[in-house]
Specification:
- By secondary structure, the chain is an alpha/beta fold.
- It folds into 2 domains: 218 residues, Rossmann fold (3-Layer(aba) Sandwich), CATH 3.40.50; 92 residues, Rossmann fold (3-Layer(aba) Sandwich).
- 49% of the residues lie in helices and 14% in strands.
- It has 15 helices and 9 strands.
- The longest helix has 18 residues.
- It is globular and about 55 Å long.
- 53% of the residues are buried.
- The N terminus is likely disordered.
Length: 329
């Protein structure tokens, strides 16, 4: 298994890399459809951590999450013939919304597979974009089986939630904007990690647009597959899955993992209690609505403040699609 992990890294380094030009092209391609989200500051959180924090609030993005970037880039990269029979994907929420939204923008039909226990706010948003939803039991096997049935029935093009180079390039545009807008270089940028699309994109963004910046990730203790994978060199499954960060439950992919191994410094685990506290700070002190998954990166900085003290730290808040009837505080 260790040899397989090394082979994947070697393949990435030799010919699977997403170029700087491809990320710039992705940004140009999606620019008219997305918000250029601002950079926010908080003197309270600066004082609490001893760092200078620069927040990239993708909860202000179209569909309420960074996923709009990757979804749009993926669909805008498909040909007219590929879009003819629609597009399909599986997702618990934010990628589902991204593909439904992007499909509406390009005039294609969207067929979305969602776990039956997906947050209601995300289900309603997908329906609102006109997508056809198929519900399934919340397991990777059932998600993939349902998608395959849709492909056989409709001929729709499949867009993976994170293990897709066009998706990764689209997600990289968030960190690209952050580096451009902060002006002076950042010492660190940190993003949450689930399947790794945002983290891989963030890592490539730093590699190309701010190479002096170190990249970290935050991950829930209750879905800690990325930490295990990062340490072992192989794609691992979490020993157990139970966390309020419902957007970070998936395992890494063979396209995201090699990028993360090559360009990420470390992955830091946080508990649900620490995620909830970070989420509360963002709501109460910065007055912004962030979902649990979106607060994970701040939670990691708060927990490891000694590591980041005295540094300029970019924090990507990944989304704000929280069920207001089911808040953790």
């Amino acid at each position: 298994m260790a040899a397989n992990g090394c082979i994947r890294i070697k393949l990435y380094m030799n010919h699977q890399v997403i170029s700087k030009e491809e990320i710039a092209l992705a940004h140009e391609r999606i620019r008219r459809f997305i918000h250029r989200t601002p950079v926010l500051r908080s003197s309270f959180l600066d004082n609490l951590t001893g760092a200078e924090l620069f927040f990239k609030p993708e909860n202000f993005q179209k569909i309420g999450a960074f996923k709009a970037r990757g979804g749009l880039n993926a669909l805008l990269s498909l040909s007219t013939e590929e879009l003819l029979h629609g597009v399909t994907t599986h997702s618990s929420g934010n990628h589902a919304q991204a593909i439904a939204f992007a499909a509406a923008m390009v005039g294609a039909k969207a067929y979305i597979v969602m776990p039956e226990n997906s947050p209601k706010v995300k289900i309603k948003a997908v329906e609102g974009y006109g997508a056809e939803i198929t519900f399934c039991i919340n397991s990777q096997e059932e998600r993939e089986r349902a998608v395959q049935e849709i492909i056989l029935r409709t001929g729709a093009a499949f867009v993976h939630p994170f293990n897709n180079y066009h998706v990764i390039a689209g997600q990289a545009t968030a960190s690209k904007e952050l580096f451009e807008d902060v002006g002076k270089s950042l010492d660190v940028v940190i993003a949450p990690v689930g399947g790794g699309g945002l983290l891989a994109g963030t890592a490539l963004g730093a590699h190309y647009f701010s190479p002096e910046t170190s990249v970290y990730a935050g991950e829930p203790e209750g879905a800690a597959d990325a930490i295990l994978s990062f340490k072992s060199g192989n794609i691992e499954k979490a020993p157990y899955v139970k966390t309020i960060a419902d957007g970070l439950l998936t395992t890494l992919g063979d396209k995201t993992f090699p990028v993360i191994r090559a360009h990420v410094t470390d992955i830091l685990a946080v508990s649900d209690e620490e995620i909830t506290q970070a989420m509360r700070y963002l709501w109460e002190r910065m007055k912004i609505v962030v979902e649990p998954s979106g607060a994970v990166s701040l939670a990691a900085v708060l927990k490891n403040s000694a590591l980041f003290s005295g540094k300029r730290v970019g924090i990507i808040l990944s989304g704000g699609n929280v069920d207001l009837g089911n808040l953790p505080f």
